[in-house]
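Researcher: Go.
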Amino acid sequence: MNSKIKPIVYSKGKRRVGKGFSRGELKAVSLTIEEALKLNIPVDERRKTAHEENIETLRKHLSQIGRKA
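Model: Structure:
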């Protein structure tokens, strides 16, 4: 399943597209990992960081699909 929504991560000082959103980012928009996967939102359980730009991306995506964040 390819998803159009992707997080931004920082690796070795460089910004790149990540594999999935972190638990902290999902928690900030009141989503569980299971709910995110049902909505085809990629999740990377190994990531520990929560970037504000990814939280905003999730909020926009959820409002577009008609779900309140």
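Model: The two ends are 23 Å apart (CA to CA).
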